[in-house]
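Why do we bother with holo predictions? Because pocket geometry can differ from the apo form. Keep that in mind while you read this record for zinc ion.
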Amino acid sequence: MSEISISILDCNFNDLETEFEKINSTDASFVHLDIMDGIFVSRDTRNTFDLEKIKTLSNKKLDIHLMIDKPIKYLQRYIDLKPEYISVHLEKNSKLNECINKIQSNKIKAGVAINPDTDIKFLEPYIKQVDMILIMSVFPGEGGQKFLSSTFEKIKLLNQYKMKNNFKISVDGGVNNLNSEKLHSLYSDILVSGSFLVKNEDIKIAVKSLLNK
Ligand code: DX5
Ligand code: ZN
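The structure, written out:
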């Protein structure tokens, strides 16, 4: 059974109270926070939302996705929020091992995010240690993009590593009720979904539709 992580990238940041009232009423397990620095990707969300406020408003565990350059330098800020997961990208990250160690030594689960055009063979050195692989099903940078169908093949390949290791597969980008069923059948553990959920007039029903309820 998959769990749902709601990406808030496309929600109304001027009224977080109302947004979280709705989010808290759903069957989702996590709130997915997309942190972008204007360098790793062109958008910069570092001052878009108030993380401390979100921490107090949310009754969901936090799932932090860092799309930032040199994440090792900035990890502490996110560790202090005591999220369930912190994911860092594999790409352009010479200190990935240090990042994973630092996250896990603070008793937080460590994820490695991988872009659509990165071969999963580059995950091999980390696969035994990580708690989650965050498969990007769009190129990072914006919400509301179309799900890339090449993701399905990637999940199948990753499932081969899963037999001997103990990580979760999370899928992020363009997830909606048209692709969720297939993602379930491929044993995706966590479905991250943003615009489909937060722009839906009934987020509770929309979450249920991703859970096949
Ligand atoms: C993309 C982000 C995703 C995205 C999800 O850079 O990492 O989390 O916002 O939003 P949707 O579901 O709208 O693609
Ligand atoms: Zn994300």
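Residues 7, 32, 34, 65, 172, 192 surround zinc ion (ligand 2) (CB under 6 Å).
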